[in-house]
Amino acid sequence: MSSTPQCHLPPSRARRHFLGVIAATSARLVAMSSTAAMISALPAQAKPKEKHGNGPKGGGHNCFLRGTSISTPKGSTHIEDLKIGDFVETVRGEAVAIKWIGRRAYKMAGPSWNDSVMPIRISRHAIDDRTPHSDLYLSPNHALLIDGVLIRVKELVNGISIVPALPTQQEKIEYLQIVLDTHEVILAEGAPAESFLLRGSNHENFTNFAEFERLYPGHSRLAMTPFAPIVGYEGGREHLRALLGLGISRFVQVHDPIQEAYTRIAARTGQLVN
Fold first, then answer.
1. Where are the alpha helices (DSSP H) in 61-174?
2. Rounded-to-integer distance, Cα 231 and Cα 23, Å
3. Stated pTM of the model
4. 84: helix, coil or strand?
5. What would the mean pLDDT of 65-91 be, rounded to a whole number?
6. Strands (DSSP E) found in the chain
7. Which of 112, 130, 144, 168 could share a disulfide with 1, CB 3.0–4.6 Å?
8. What is the rounded average pLDDT of the residues 214-240?
9. Least confident among 68-72, 111-115, 162-166, 174-178
């Protein structure tokens, strides 16, 4: 397994590139009269490198590691103990019934786990003084709701409080994800984490996808509306759309919620190291 990165990592090449794109694009957008005009002037969206869901070769996960505690009206329950029809609590204050639970497991095939499979550990109290209340392990592309937007945890890795890690030495990684009628934000170890965002056939990347097809014939190609704007450096145009949707003044003052969240969380690392 690769060595743990150092604290306060400098922005990645992708992040630097994206911020440069933002600066250049902002200059062009100043002269435009409306957000709609801004969006229509952007270049065609490139085909995403990863799907939002478990990719066939391990890429693009947005799942919970086995053992994660999920908040339900009856208390916290490990995700592997939940079943279809059980209720989970959402950040909207409502309890929602589980429609389906997707599962996928991996075994180590080499000297280390692939980066796209290795879980990201969000340490206890990494986000704030209460969140999460225990170490939380998510797949790299799983998003947390922070400051009103959904941010993938891999964008927040700082080398101390948020790092690629497993709870113990394991030869197997098992991921599970909860599908609800709509895309929601539920509470995992007390942290606001997304449920599965069904987009076309992305559920087919779960090992047990045939169960979903059997239970819900005709539902497998539905596309859910995201609970909140999804921001990420991989899809430059999608990310810029989200930024535009968060509000722009006539002077196009674009702020980057990922960088703001990263900086704030990284600044807390000193409080977590004893």
1. none
2. 17
3. 0.74
4. coil
5. 97
6. 64-65, 69-72, 75-78, 87-89, 95-97, 100-107, 120-122, 136-138, 143-146, 149-152, 162-164, 172-179, 185-188, 191-194, 230-231
7. 112
8. 77
9. 111-115
- Write the single-letter amino acid at 160: I
Q: What pLDDT, on the 0 to 100 scale, is given for residue 242?
A: 53
Cβ neighbours of residue 205 closer than 8 Å, sequence gap 6 or more: 51, 53, 54, 55, 56, 104
d(CA 2, CA 150): 28
Across the range 185-189, mean pLDDT stands at 98
Model pLDDT, residue 34 = 33
Q: For residues 149 and 228, is the Cβ–Cβ distance under 8 A?
A: yes
100/181 Cα distance (integer angstroms): 9
Mean pLDDT of 142-168: 95
Helix then strand then coil, % of the chain, to nearest 5: 25, 25, 55
Residues 32, 252: Cα–Cα separation, whole Å: 10
Chain-centre distance for alpha carbon 229: 11
| Model pLDDT for residues 14-38, shown as the tens digit of each residue | 454 444 434 433 433 333 333 333 3
The burial of 176, by beta-carbon neighbours within 10 Å (0-12 exposed, 13-18 middle, 19 or more buried), is given as buried
Grade residue 134 by pLDDT with cuts at 50, 70 and 90.
very high
CA distance linking residue 141 with residue 119, whole number of Å:
10
- 202 close to 16: Cβ distance less than 8 angstroms: no
What is the dihedral angle through the alpha carbons of 61, 66, 70, 75, rounded to the nearest 10 degrees?
A: 170
Sequence letter at residue 117: V
> End-to-end distance of the chain based on CA atoms, in angstroms?
25
